[in-house]
Amino acid sequence: MRRAWTVVELLVVLALAVVLAALAMPALSSARSHAKLTMTLARLGQNAAVFHAYTADWAEQFPAPCDPAGPAYFIRSAALKSDLILADYFESAEYWWLAMTDRYYNGTVFDRSWFPVEAERYGQEGNVVFDYPCTFVSRPDYWDPLTRLRGNTQWGAVRLSSVLFPSKKVLLNSGFYHALRRSKRCYPEGADTKVPLCDGRRYIVPLVCADGSASTPWREEIFEGYPNGNGTLIYHSADSPLACHTLSGVRGRDLR
Q1: What is the pLDDT of residues 84-99, one digit of tens each?
Q2: Is 149 left (phi over 0), alpha (psi -120 to 50) or beta?
C-alpha cells in the first residue's frame, strides 16, 4: 500500500517548484526580449529594402516628403483625405512613410513594420515610428558649421551616391529605448544582455544603415551630431533624436 504524502513533504515540493519557477523567469523574459529585438531588426531591414527600391525608382534620391521652397510645408498623399500641414520643413522627416505609402506600402496609413516591436509592451505602437534622419532631407553642406547657410537653399533630397560611408550612416533607427530611459522605465535584464537600463545607464539603439545592415550598437558607439540640430527653432533644435543630425550630413558617419 502506498504511503500518502505528508503536509511537510507537500510544502517542500511546492517550495522547490516556486524556486525553480523564479530561476526560470529571467531566462524566459530575456528570451522574449531578444525575440522582440530580433523582430525589430528585421523590420528595420525590411524598410531599408523599401528605401533602396525608392532610390532605384527616383534617380538615386532618398525620400524628401515636402517641398523645401515653402512658404507652407505640407505632405500630399492619396492615403490621406487632406494635406498634412507641417509647422517646420524638417518635421517632414518624421513622416517619411507618408511620402512612400502610396507606391511602396499599399496606401496604408498604419503598417507594423514602421514601428519597433518593443513598443507594443508599453502600448506605444503607433506613437514611436522609426526615426528617419534630417540629414536625408538636406544637403551635406548644411551639416557643416563652416558652410551652413540661413534659409532653405541647402534643403532638399540627397542622393545615394552622396553617402560616403553606407555601413556607418544610419538610415533608420529606433528612438524607443532612448525614450524609455528618459521615462525611467527599463527592462529586467542587465547590461551584459544588451538591453537598456534606467537612470542614464547604458542602452542600445536598434538601427539600420544606408547599406541595409541592421545592428544594435550601444549609445556611446554613436557619434554626437550637429550641435544645434537642424538649426530651426520649431523642430529638432537640439541633437535629438539620435543619429539624425550627422556632422557632414550623409557624407559623415554615425557609428564609431
Answers
A1: 888 888 889 989 998 8
A2: beta
